[in-house]
Amino acid sequence: MSIKLRELIRNVRACKTAAEERAVIAKECALIRTSFKDEDSVFRHRNVAKVLFIHMLGYPSHFGQMECLKLIASARFLDKRIGYLALSILVDEKSEVLTLVTNSLSSDLSHRNPYIQGLALSALGNISNTDMLRDLSSVVLKLFSETNVYVRKKAALCGVQIFKKVPDMVEDFVGPTVSLLGDRNHAVLLTAVSLLIDIAMNHPSFIKKLRKAVPQLVKVLKSLVLSGYAPEYDVNGITDPFLQVSLIELLGLLGEGHAGASEQMNDILAQISTNTEGNRNSGNAILYESVRTILKMDCEDGLRVLAINTLGRFLTNRDNNIRYVALETLQIVVNVENDAVQRHRETIVECLRDPDVSIRVRALDLVFALISRDSIEELSRELLNYLVIATSEQKKDLCSRLSQLAFKFYTDKAWQVNMLTSMMCIAGREAPNDTWETLVSLIGQPESEYFRPQILHRLFESLSEDASQTGLVNAAVWSIGEFGALLLNGAPRSSDSTFNGGSMDEYEGKTEDEVISLLLSIRTRHDITVGGKGLILTSFVKLASRFPDSHSRLAAIVNTYSTSMSLELQTRACEYFALLNDPSDRSLLNDWLAPMPVPTDEEMEERRVTAHHQVAEGSDSEEDDDDQGSDSEEEEKPKKKSSKVAASAASSNLLDLDDIFGGGSSVPSNPAPPQSSNQLDLLSGIFGGTPPPAAPQSDDPFGMFGGESFPEMNAYNKNGLSVKFQLQRGSGDKQSIVTAYYSNSNGEEISNFVFQAAVPKFISLKMDTPTGNSLPPFNAGTATQKILLVNSMQGTKPIVMKVKIVYSIGGQTVEDQATVSGFPVNL
After folding, report:
1. Which residues touch 406 (CB under 8 Å, ≥6 apart)?
2. Going by DSSP bridges, is the β-strand pair 238-239/668-669 parallel, antiparallel, or unpaired?
3. Cβ(765)–Cβ(757) below 8 Å
4. What is the pLDDT of residues 129-180, one digit of tens each?
5. CA angle 718–769–703, rounded 5-degree value
6. pLDDT per residue as tens digits for the range 765-779
7. What is 639-820's CATH topology?
8. 629-653 in b/e burial notation, b at 16+ Cβ within 10 A?
9. What pTM was estimated for this model as a whole?
10. What CATH number was assigned to the domain covering residues 106-200?
11. Residue 119: how many CA atoms within 13 Å on its side-chain side?
């Protein structure tokens, strides 16, 4: 005896294990199959319903597919309802069983019972293939004029499925669908409008024909807006907001890019925007859709302003979803109607203080779009306030965008410098390097002379309060070194409340000891970088000519750097100390340490554009290069291919180096990731300009003093032995100096260490004697060796080197070879 569906559900829920559940399902499936085999028509609908439940649990249910067809063919409504439901769930569109139901569908579509017609239309819309829709589309079209409202609505909904699967039949449905717009029933109207929206969006070629229905759509919308209270359609005091939103959306699709259609709907949209209350979600939905439609249309400026004012009201709503939608829509129109959006600037800025991060992010983008020459000072103040609470990920982007706008819309040089200084005080750690470089270049320009003392004192105070901001440290240290003498006298504070709270007090003059002590305290911080220490070292040297009374003390401080673990700082310290203690001609000291020339605004803009292009070109995909094997006659490539020229030249010269040391495998050594050049080239890399002339030094065989430095690169790192190259351009033509830096991270000492190098024929090599042939363990000590290279094809072919390393460790001799590539092309 077949049990009822509710009993099966009860038995399944009573199971305590999966195995027990499978046993119950298997037993019931066997009983159902037996009932199907016995052609039990009385309980067939019950058994199919249980098959649907079994299918929902994830068990096989294919044995019930044919029974669906038998239920559909039954004359009873109960059987047809279960049959069509099971057909939609158990059968997919590719199943062969589906073709057997076409005749039953055709018969039911013409049935006298409207509910059976509705079942057939629902099944045809949910589960059907292209052939079925082609065969039955004519029957569906006839139902568009059926007297029963329920059938007309179902037929229109089925038409959407026909459009999706049989696009070439759209034309047959356009006329009958437009005729449904005259229906008084809102359900039929809503389905008809939804059908027309689908046609307008997915079949634009029919928009011209649909525009003829604009007057009728406006008439329907006006009747809804002006109608009185209708209980059956009222939602929070709004008459059928669902139908109104759909009508407005359709009008927007038809009015876009067409002045005539837009003019016909201007009045009703203005009326909706003015009279619809926005204190309920139903009213807000209508207002938002009307705004979207107005912004699409070719309408009058006054109507656009009205739409933007509606969005402005949304910004004051307590619902964050409505505010988010308003901000997102304003972002779309701000470039077209900037003046209208500017009227709501205060409300938009207020959104920057919203607790919801999504609101703040949308408001931030909109504030940047509103910045102009007239509003830059006010909005930059708000953006600086937002920078305080921004996340680390946001700060870098914010600083970059703010610095660009500071150059695009700045009102005067003093404001520009003060704004960048505030940015460094707030987010100096996250700001890109070019931001502080831009700041110091502005401070050094002649136009900044009248407010330079104010900026120097402000940087000094900011550095005293917070030395953790890297960008602030670099900018302040550089400025103090160049113009430190200005700190000895007082200076008036800026009157701009953006930067000092409106205070008009004066800065007090500092003593030489206070300036030097501040730099010394920063030098000993745990978070100071090597590049920062280098700037401080250079600042001490510069101050020696600015502070004559402290010359001896500064020279002693510079000399302490000669024992630094950084080779760059060691080298600079020795050279600077020799410069400060050279008794030959002290009159030249001030000339050598004079303030560095800074680029003009035009040159800075050109640098920013060049840097932007280099970043963009670095992400381009690699192109084929047919001249990889060329040697001395290879032509100079464009800048965008410089990295590939280096790789090409390196690969073409490896064969020349393979036989120098004999056999052995050649393993290319990958260079370290490039570091910022301004951290190493302390004197000439700040602005990318020409370095100042170097002081002569007779005991410098390689001409290193004043040469341009390059990022450090890893030449070899294997088995605990590390070889790093410090690269520097020599004073002679096409000369380069490589300082090899050897260290040992093993637990045992390396002895009898020998480093040999070989280069291609177009490069000459001269190696100095290393400082030692043993390396203590745990990186406790280092050995260095200088290598002089002369590249006769500098700029065309880069340096490539084959190295051989021999050493003893733990009583064993280790011998290895490697190829070092990745040298800069212009070295």
Report:
1. 376, 380, 416, 419, 420
2. unpaired
3. yes
4. 888 888 888 888 888 888 888 999 889 888 888 888 888 888 888 888 888 8
5. 105
6. 888 889 888 998 888
7. Immunoglobulin-like (2.60.40)
8. eeeeebeebeeebbeebbbbbbebb
9. 0.60
10. 1.25.10.10
11. 24
